[in-house]
C-alpha cells in the first residue's frame, strides 16, 4: 500500500528516544521529511543521525523543545517555517507524568502534569492548524496511554490528563473535519520502552521482587504473550497520519496485544 507520505512534512514531538524515535524512523522510511523535537539537544541530534544512517537519503531536521514551555513551542514552529514552510503531520507525544496515587501527588505535580500532558498538546495543535487549514489537509495523531480506556492503579495523573486529552482531540476532530484534517489518538499498552522499564522497576520495589519477575508476569497477562515493540506501535501511527487514512478521525485506539478487557 502506498501511504502517500513521500515529501510530506511530519513533526514528531518527544522523538529523541522510545516511541517518538520509532515513529520518526517509520516516517523516514516512507519518504517523509521529518522534524524531530525533544528537550535533550544531544540525544535529539544523535537520534536524527541514527535515522539518516538507517534510511538512505532521509531528510531529517531537529530542534530542541520543552513541550511544557509555550515559548519553546513558538520557537519550534518558527524553525519549521524556516526549514520547510509547511506541516502536513503532527505527532503529539510526551513522557508520562509522575507516578503515584492520590495521596502521593501534590498541587505542583497536578500543574506539571497538566502542562506536560494536556496543555502542550493544545498548544502544538493551535500552532499547526493554520498550516493545515491553508493546505486543506492535515493529520494530527496524539500519543496517549492505555489508561484512556482502563485506568492504571498508581498513575492518577496519567489517568486524569490523558483522558482529558482524548476529550480535547475528539472535539477538535469534529471541528476541523471540514478542512480534511484528521485527528486521532493512539495509546500504547505494554510496549518495550524506557517508561515501561521504569514502571516495572517501581512495581518490583513495591512487591519486593525482581524486575525480571514483574516483566514475566506482566507479559503473561497479554493474550499475544509478549510486550510490543516500538516499531509495531509506530506503524499504526504512520498509517493514521497518511493519506491512506481518508475517513478515520476522532478515534482513540489502544495498541496493546489484546491486554485490555474494556470494550
UniProtKB/TrEMBL annotation:
Gene3D superfamilies: NAD(P)-binding Rossmann-like Domain
Domain of life: Bacteria
Keyword match Coiled coil: yes
Keyword entries, A-Z: Coiled coil
Keyword Iron tagged: no
Coiled coil: 34-61
One Pfam family, short name: adh_short_C2
Xref: InterPro entries: NAD(P)-bd_dom_sf, SDR, SDR_fam
PANTHER family reported in the protein's UniProt record: 3-OXOACYL-(ACYL-CARRIER-PROTEIN) REDUCTASE (PTHR42879), NADPH-DEPENDENT REDUCTASE BACG (PTHR42879:SF6)
Family: Belongs to the short-chain dehydrogenases/reductases (SDR) family.
Protein name in the entry: SDR family oxidoreductase
Species name: Planococcus chinensis
